[in-house]
Amino acid sequence: MYTRFITTLLALAASLDAHPTRLQPRSTSHQIGYISVDVATLWTNPHKPRPVDAPALTNPANPEEWLHDMTLKQFLNLTTQDRTQSQALYGDLVYILDAKDGWYHIAATGQPTPKNKLGYPGWVPAAQVSLDTGFGALQSSMPFALVDNATSVNIYRDADMSDVFMSVSYDTRLPVIGQTSDAIQVAVPSGGSAYLSTSDASVYSSETAIPYPKGQTLVDAAQRFIGLPYLWGGTSGYSVDCAGLTHTIYHANGILIGRDASAQADSNYTGHGVQGTSVARADLQPGDIIFYATNLSDPQTVYHDAMYAGNGQMIEAYGAGIPVRITAVRFNDDYWGAERFLTG
Ligand SMILES: *[C@@H]1O[C@H](CO)[C@@H](O)[C@H](O)[C@H]1NC(C)=O
Ligand SMILES: *[C@@H]1O[C@H](CO)[C@@H](O)[C@H](O)[C@H]1NC(C)=O
Ligand SMILES: *[C@@H]1O[C@H](CO)[C@@H](O)[C@H](O)[C@H]1NC(C)=O
Ligand SMILES: *[C@@H]1O[C@H](CO)[C@@H](O)[C@H](O)[C@H]1NC(C)=O
């Protein structure tokens, strides 16, 4: 039965484009790697981590311990000292731009930014990146399981799902190599396979097979993030920054928007999978993204965004020390406008 399922999957994979939809440009000149920890933090340079950041640098990483142990001052210091850039999730394809002293300078795909057309740039410990081409072959040919039903879930060593292997974030995608009624068997970038509960993830043949969301679908997903810590550069189900929240939720629903607030707001920026259209205050709908800027005439000064949740409320990752929250939309002097990325 198991063999028959694999055969079905192989037939399914063969009937699809060999490369599932990728909206960003491909590079042929850079080595490819795959993130091999639940969440890798992209640092501005290898000298930016402090002693308190040790749990974020290892393999396995320990994001919960890291976030738990940091003081408010230490959270704020990540922002003021420009230490962190973004994050990338287990299995994410990254281009290796440079290598130095046990670190890789990478571009993380799936995170459009004017900073680099290949993906979001930053430094990660080389130990957090797998070069396993076998995993890459499965990633480019097999359906994937998308973690979409909680901010983080466990994956297991056994099909009975009693032996926890590690936790993985919302929006993680892993190649599917088998399935029972309760468990999805996925390939993992550290080699071998693991099991996910069918209630924690959905299986799709390609990015375009992800059902097109309604605005309320996005708001429902954002509700699950309420209470998570704010992290400068956070782009995962463990912690987010403002645009990390909106980007991650759209991405898990198959829609690629800019990684940073200024890129999301800039309708002239063409690196997105989809362009936003501007929305008047009176027309705001759930799922729209609201932007704040220091100079309303200059979109490059957009510094914050949030997801409109309906009824005059928004869900936002506001700043260090303030957990993700739902709050009344602030129509203040710095209200820049809103964009809609959903059509129809
Ligand atoms: C930020 O943290 C570093 C390392 O702990 C420390 O040396 C520096 O003084 C801090 N800066 C501020 C502005 O808090
Ligand atoms: C999502 O998780 C909840 C709680 O664990 C479960 O009741 C529900 O069936 C899951 N949804 C899907 C679509 O699997
Ligand atoms: C886009 O470009 C046009 C023409 O250069 C400019 O007027 C407009 O302000 C730009 N919009 C944004 C959001 O940058
Ligand atoms: C705001 O941005 C506009 C357009 O770039 C610029 O002309 C103006 O000088 C800026 N205002 C301030 C106070 O910086």
From TrEMBL:
Source organism, top-level taxon: Eukaryota
Keyword S-adenosyl-L-methionine (UniProt): no
Signal sequence, renumbered to the chain: 1-18
GO molecular function ontology, one term from the record: cysteine-type peptidase activity
Keyword field: Hydrolase, Protease, Signal, Thiol protease
Domain NlpC/P60: 212-344
BP-aspect Gene Ontology terms: proteolysis
Keyword Protease: yes
Xref: Pfam families: NLPC_P60, SH3_YKFC_2nd
PROSITE patterns xrefs: NLPC_P60
Family designation: Belongs to the peptidase C40 family.
Protein's recorded name: Polysugar degrading enzyme
Organism of derivation: Neohortaea acidophila
